[in-house]
Amino acid sequence: MKRGHWRGCWGLAAALLGFPAVAQMEGPPQGAPQFSCFEAAREGSGVSESVAAQLCQGARSDAPARCFLRVQEKGFLSEPDALQLCQYAEPSDDPASCFLKARTSSFLDETQLLQLCRPPIAEMMHLCPYGP
Asked: Where is the signal peptide (predicted)?
């Protein structure tokens, strides 16, 4: 086989297997929601990189960061509790609003409020932390 033919085969194999092109590896890929979330969590806050990374693990948007910063801004939750409430949040979940509303209109304790308002996927991940 010709030398150019092998290069074409490698390119085709890389495309089929999903290997990123070298040019795309220079920075975070477009649409990297975990990285956007990480940056949002770190921006203008005292959140450590390790907490921001844990918060944004598996994020599909910056919703976990916005939730975390909101409950931290209000001063209602400790960092670990805010992390528990907001990790895996989706824009449609809004666990911060749920927590803040439930806190003012119910007699549930903080642990029960966290369980009530956590995103549904968070409970699944708690039960099966290593995946299916």
From this structure: 1-23
Query: Does residue 7 surpass a pLDDT of 80?
Result: no
Number of domains forming the structure of the chain: 1
110 CB-side CA count, 13 A: 9
Residue 4 lies inside a defined structural domain of this protein: no
Q: What is the pTM of this model?
A: 0.67
Residue whose structure tokens are 């290997």: 19
- The pLDDT tens digits of the residues spanning 89-107 come to 998 888 999 998 998 888 8
- More confident position, 20 or 85: 85
What are the residue ranges of helices labelled H in 29-78? 33-42, 49-56, 63-74
